[in-house]
Design brief:
six-stranded parallel β-sheet; 633 residues
């Protein structure tokens, strides 16, 4: 990485430079924006397609910059490849909410469809990241088919102010597709943020840091009346339309903030916290939620219900990111006082605290977890909940105990708790109530059986789960894993393919399908699936190791050696990778390197006789060569 200072960006045109990412470190303002615009115009003159985006979170929200990019491209993609729009509908409607009016999400699952009161599953944080990879795949397939040779230059102003999702999208786009799609990125950051911006990109992406000499522009006075008028007009146009509200949350917060209306800012920041927590954008939800509890005391003093709702969404966001200490502190300092006089709140809070201690705390504290589960149960009895709600909360609590029993290696008890809970809900609730949690209970039984190695029972319960919730990708992936263990390879393949069809891409399912194809002896298919997994997550050891073995079995020795080398760089404890590479290096006549591999493997796993036998063969060959060399001399 090089750092240089230029009077004008045109003095060093980054488009002609080899660096795919150029970072402009300069004060925010019209001069910096104009510099980017001028450079993009220069690039357009040499037949590049250009995009001038703002990544400022305050202006555009979690997807700032990405929203602008896809808004500019959507009509073209829809015209050229409507099939891609349908295939990636899930990612697109979360990025561009207004598209809900014209396209439908394919195959929604119970987590998507359940009402808030029955939504007992929060998506893990990595599920939102799948949307990023799905959007990149969409761009890849469309651009490759329609304009592969056209260079793109994307300007991203205020990249250091981007949301977690927005910045990750552009970093992953450049890592995965900058070369293939002929994309350059020009990002601007404030003084002092250039080096960290460069380092945020993948190590294989070359970056260049430029510091053009620009005069900082002091912001002019804010026209609060004009901002208030614009915000009021926008509110009137939106009305109670939830889709419009979601699409315009960042704009409304920005305008009301400029208008000096703290009450309005509070309302829309709370809406943003709710919206993005539900979507699994936890880091961005926290960004909106920070400070809201104090602001609630100012804007709605005495409204403990509102503070509880804010607390709960903040807590769930921190749990989603596994911020254990922050979650516990928030629960104890804010949640406990708010729940003190409300039994239904205590029931929920104590359940969550049980999960903190029994699942996330290191080391796990099962005794503390059970203690909080009992306190949660007691709160049900003390509450004025409806009878149906009491029944559900009881079963939900016992599912937490099943989790603890499974962690304690008491799987039969865990299974019995889940079975009893499923039967109890069937007995006491209407068939259409809490369908999501019923499916989760069946899934948990299947997971315990799978962990026990009782794969036939696992498949039975995975199938029952799928019958309840047929569009949840992970259920097919997990059933396929059990089928794979039973050598029911064609059935496993079908389930893996269905899992891929039902979700934006995730590396685990491609890795598993690669394992399936390798077991089938279809090495080229296996290599293709492992490669898809590694495209998404290059550091996934199982995919790298699996591809190395597939290359080896396909007779592609050099590629196999390269992958085994990458494996041991990621995990130097994998003796099998050292041993396999040792064999391949021996076959290639690289005896000294082969000997070093067998030495490393034996040090890790000295009880494996085959390693010693192979090492002896290598040593014997080396000694023969040395003897021959001495004889010649």
């Amino acid at each position: 990485m090089s750092t240089q200072t230029y009077a004008l960006l045109s003095d060093c045109n980054p488009w002609y430079a080899p660096k795919p990412v150029v970072v402009l470190e300069a004060p925010e303002g019209p001069a910096r924006a104009q510099l980017i615009e001028e450079h993009l115009e220069e690039c357009a003159q040499i037949c590049a397609r250009t995009f001038n985006l703002s990544c400022n979170f305050e202006l555009g929200g979690p997807w700032a910059g990405v929203t602008e990019l896809f808004s500019a491209l959507f009509s073209e993609i829809q015209h050229d490849r409507p099939d891609l729009i349908e295939r990636h509908s899930f990612e697109l409607v979360y990025l561009l909410p207004l598209l809900r009016r014209s396209i439908s999400i394919r195959n929604p699952n119970l987590t998507d469809l359940s009402p808030e009161s029955e939504r007992t599953r929060n998506y893990p944080a990595d599920r939102a990241i799948r949307n990023i990879h799905g959007l990149i795949d969409l761009l890849d397939e469309w651009k490759t088919a329609t304009c592969p040779e056209t260079p793109w230059v994307i300007g991203c102003d205020s990249f250091d102010e981007a949301g977690a999702m927005g910045s990750l999208f552009f970093r992953e786009l450049m890592r995965r597709r900058s070369k293939r799609l002929n994309i350059r990125l020009i990002i601007s950051v404030a003084p002092g943020n250039g080096h960290s911006a460069c380092q945020s990109f993948d190590a294989e992406i070359q970056t260049e840091l430029l510091a053009p000499r620009l005069v900082a522009a002091w912001p002019g006075p804010v026209d609060s009346l004009a901002a208030a008028s614009s915000a009021a007009e926008l509110e009137e146009r939106i009305g109670r339309d939830e889709v419009e509200q979601q699409a315009n949350i960042p704009r409304l917060i920005y305008l009301w903030k400029r208008a000096g209306r703290a009450d309005k800012v509070f309302i829309y920041r709370f809406l943003a916290l709710e919206t993005y927590n539900t979507q699994g954008l936890y880091a961005d939800a926290i960004r909106y939620g920070d400070g809201l509890l104090d602001l609630a005391l100012e804007e709605a003093p005495g409204d403990d219900e509102l503070r509880w709702l804010i607390f709960h969404k903040l807590l769930m966001s921190h749990i989603g990111l596994e911020h254990v200490d922050t979650s516990l502190r928030l629960a104890e300092e804010v949640g406990v006082p708010l729940a003190e006089k409300e039994a239904s709140r205590r029931n929920h809070l104590f359940y969550l605290m049980a999960i903190f201690y029994a699942r996330f705390k290191k080391p796990r504290d099962f005794a503390k977890g059970e203690e909080y589960l009992e306190r949660s149960l007691a709160a049900i009895a003390e509450s004025d909940m409806s009878e149906g709600e009491r029944h559900f909360r009881f079963v939900f609590n016992r599912n937490g105990l099943a989790m603890i029993r499974n962690f304690q290696r008491r799987p039969e008890e865990a299974i019995e708790l889940c079975r009893n809970g499923f039967a109890y809900l069937n007995e006491h609730l209407d068939a259409n109530e809490h369908r999501l949690h019923r499916s989760i209970l069946l899934y948990n039984i299947a997971q315990v059986y799978a962990a026990m190695g009782v794969h036939s029972e696992a498949v039975e319960y995975y199938s029952a789960t799928i019958a309840q919730d047929p569009n949840y990708s992970e259920y097919y992936n997990d059933r396929a894993n059990a089928l794979l263990q039973m050598d029911r390879l064609k059935e496993a393949e079908a389930d893996y393919l269905r899992a891929i069809e039902l979700s934006p891409p995730y590396f685990e399912v491609f890795t598993n399908l690669g394992q399936c194809y390798r077991r089938m002896g279809a090495m080229q298919d296996a290599i293709q699936q492992y490669s898809k997994a590694l495209d998404i997550e290059p550091k996934h050891v199982l995919a790298r190791l699996g591809r190395a073995k597939a290359y080896e079995e396909a007779g592609e020795r050099d590629a196999a050696i390269q992958d085994y080398t990458a494996v041991v760089a990621l995990d130097a404890t994998l003796w099998e990778a050292f041993g396999s590479r040792g064999v391949l290096r021996y076959e290639a006549g690289r005896l000294d390197e082969s000997l070093a591999d067998f030495d490393a493997a034996i040090q890790l796993k000295p009880e494996i006789a085959e390693l010693h036998e192979n090492r002896a063969i290598v040593v014997a060959d080396i000694e023969k060569l040395e003897a021959m060399a001495q004889g010649v001399s």
